Amino acid sequence: MSEQSLAIADLRKSYERAELNEDASQADPLKQFDQWLTEAIAANVPEPNAMTLATVANDLRPSTRVVLIKGLDARGVVWYSNYASRKGQELAGNPYAALQFHWVELERVVRIEGRVEKISDEESDAYFNSRPLDSRIGAWASPQSEVISGRGVLVANAAKYGARFMLNPPRPPHWGGYRLVPDNWEFWQGRKSRLHDRLRYTLQTENEGGDWLRERLAP
Prior knowledge:
Elements: H1 3-9, H2 29-42, E1 50-56, E2 62-68, E3 71-73, E4 76-82, H3 86-93, E5 96-103, E6 108-118, H4 121-130, H5 133-141, H6 151-165, E7 175-189, E8 197-203, E9 212-216
């Protein structure tokens, strides 16, 4: 084993910032998540809205990438992307995914699983039009996940679409929002001696506003 591998194996951290118990947690996982997200923002955690999105292709190979949460309500968690990207193609073939937030400074992780659906054109249009101009042009300029010969392709595309649309680029038909409709949440709080707190919420009905079963998992 190399010296670097030995050094990695010796990395240790004692988690002692907080605790998570059934009495102090919310009965509704959405409220619990909103509380933790609010605390992450207040703590100035870097990129508190960043989440890892995991999808599975038709060949059953999983893949992950980091995206940004852009909406949250009783219907689910929303982000935006290129529908023709790798994740878009995988979601088209298998509309189930998992999300993970990792707020290192707070020693907290949130995992969310569920079915994914596209949001309405009206919602996607409204968000797209709120973005900075460069970001709107970028949605046209980048053939996301495709092989390109170099960065010059992106620069040329941005110039082309900037000249074409000027200050009012419309939303590309291949770009819009996704919503993950949760049926499973897990909240993880680091604790001392690796005896971490894990609370799992499982949806008991398929109806909106259904009951959630809250259970403690062994770490």
